[in-house]
Each structure stands twice: as C-alpha cells, then as structure tokens.
Amino acid sequence: MHMPGLLLGLLIAAPNLTGSLLRIPFGAWVDKVGGKKPFIILLILSLLGMAGLTTILVLYYPQGITLKMYPVIFFFGLLSGSGIATFSVGVPQTSYWFPQKKQGMALGAYGGLGNTAPGLFGIILPFALVGLGLTGSYAAWFIFLLIGTVIYAIFAHDAYYFQLLKQGKTPEEAKKTAQELGQELFPSGQVKEALKISARNPRTWLLVILYFTSFGGFLALTGWFPTYWNQYFGINVTEAGLLMALGFSILASFIRVYGGHLSDKFGGESTAIVSYLIVLIGALILIVTSQFWFALLGEIIIGIGMGTANAAVFKLVPKYVSNAPGGASGWVGGLGAFGGFVVPPLLGIFTDLYGKKGYALGFWVYVVLAVIAILVSFLLKTWSKENLAGTRRH
C-alpha cells in the first residue's frame, strides 16, 4: 500500500485499540446479564472484521490494494480487535463461578492459557504464510474463529445467579439459591452503577497502573520483540518470531497459570511486588547487553515477571472491588491493555533518537513502569495490612 510509517503504526495498533477500550463497557455489562451474551457479541464483531479483511484480500490482493482503501481496512481492523475485549468479560464470568479462595488459580488458568494465543500464532503464522499465502492464512483464521465462537455459544454457561434470573427468579431469590449452590461473588446491579462504584474506588486505578505495566507491556513486547531481534541482532523474521513466541509470549502465558497459584498462597500484593522486581531485572539486562544469549535471558526473565504479575493483579480485583468486579475488570482490563497501544510508539522514539542502540535503550520505559508498579504494590499491601489490623481490633 506504500503507506507512511505513522499510518502503518496506527493500522497495526487498530485491533489493540478496540480490544482494550471495549473491555470497559462489556466487562461492566457482565454484572447485569452474565458473561455469555457480551462474549458472543464481541466474537461476532471480530468475525465481521475478519470476514471483511479476508474478502478484501480475496478480491483485491495483491495489485488491487491501494492507499485509498486504508479507511475500509482500518475499520475492519478495528472490528477484528473486538475479540481481544472478551478477556474482561471472561474474568468476571470466571470469578462468579469460583469461591474467593480459588480465584487466583481459576483466573490464572483462564488468563494464562488464553494468552498463549499470541505466542502460538507467532510460531504458526510464518509457516502458514509460506503454505497458504496471505489470503489463505486470513481465511484459515476466520474459520478457526468461527468454530471457536460456535463452541463457546453451545457449551458456555453463566454462573447460577444469572441462570436463575433468566428463569424468572427475582434478584433476591436468585442470590439466595445461588449462595446455597456455592456461589460467593455477586454483582452490584446496573452496568453504569458497576462502573461508577468501581471508578470511585481508588484501588481500581492502582490496579489499572499495575495491569498497564504487566499486560499492556506484554501486548507491546509481543509485537516489539520480533522487530528487536530482527533489527538489533540481524536475525531473520521467522526466527525472530519464534524467539518472541517461545522465549516470551508462551512462557509468560503459561507462567500466568502458576502465578495464580502463587497469588493464592502468598497473597496478590506480595506476588506482584516480586513479579515487577523480576520485570525490572529483565529490562535492565536488555538495556546493557549486546550479546544474544544475555538478551535472550533478559527476554525470558521479563516474560516470567509479566506473566506472574498478570495473575497477581486479577487476584486482587475481586478482593478490592468485591461489590463490582465486572466494572473493575472493565477499567483494569481495558485501560491496562491500552498499554499495548501506548508503549510501542515510546519504544520507537528511542530508535529514532539513538538508531540501532535505541532498541536496547528503549527498555528504560519498562524500568520506569516496573518501579512505579513496585511502589503501587507496596501501597496496596500497606492498605491490606491496615484493613486486616482494623478488622482484628473490631
């Protein structure tokens, strides 16, 4: 399409834009209707986007796609990113199914296994492009997404409370029966109210900061690491994608599952402090080294820290905003994931200023973010201790 760098950057970021901001209203909507309906709507929007992009490729690729088609392609790119927003829907949907003491493991498994997708497709995509071509790869992903949507629509269920409401029970009757069946978390009520309740809680915004660093940072590096390996070390694109997937994305996603267990055992605040300290160490290694193996070690370390921190943050969401976890999930998941849209241009500024060396120096962004996250985690831990001491006095 021969587009300027700015337009290219915006086009690449388009799915992350909708995928982050749509998390806020759709995450809150769960508190009113349960997770299944919002989840399906987001998947359908993403299907429409993928269908549009695939159709454009079938009809016009390669010679017919020009810069004049940019607005249409950008629009379908925005739609395609809607599926990313399902994360903030799935978090409260999962939370409502599990008791408080099992939240960390359940949410760690949900988020960790779900987040393996960028890494897995980072491995698959180079081979798909060779075997199927660009159009065939888009068509294959559209079919895969369609199958996943159908499976979810058939087998997914909302927690007891929402099932009982759909059966005609009053909220009071539904809550009483759901409690008897073992459900512990319940919504506060209306969508706007859930967002307002969670927005008034200052801890919600502290959790946003933490998730901006860990998950927003994760999204940013999933896209940035292939460029880093290719431009800074001269590694070919296919191998650079594999290094990102195996050394960072998949690792961070699987670590997130175990991070949920650690959060249950040691507490979300303590786990977060250690996790962001690990992110800090990984970033410092990436800044100072120009040796491949040390850089790979830095990538692995920062991935371990981010994966564990992601689990710790969502262990804390139902703890600190127990009366509106869906609303809080929307703010935290949406604005936190917005880091995936904000951070890459910051990393790019370092390459503009310092050339090739900027690919290493850009990780100062993560040093600053990690330090802020550590301080915020300490603040939350202090609040937690004060609340516990107050409860004991009373």
From TrEMBL:
Q: What InterPro entries is this protein classified in?
A: MFS, MFS_dom, MFS_trans_sf, NO3_transporter
Q: Which domain of life is it from?
A: Bacteria
Location within or outside the cell: Cell membrane
A biological-process GO annotation: nitrate assimilation
Q: Which residues cross the membrane?
A: 39-60, 72-91, 123-156, 205-225, 240-259, 271-294, 300-318, 330-351, 363-383
* Transport found in the keyword field: yes
- Keyword Ubl conjugation in the entry? The reply is no
**Which residue intervals define the domain Major facilitator superfamily (MFS) profile in the entry?**
1-385
Bilayer topology annotation: Multi-pass membrane protein
What family, per the record?
A: Belongs to the major facilitator superfamily. Nitrate/nitrite porter (TC 2.A.1.8) family.
Q: What is this protein called?
A: Putative nitrate transporter NarT
Gene designation? narT
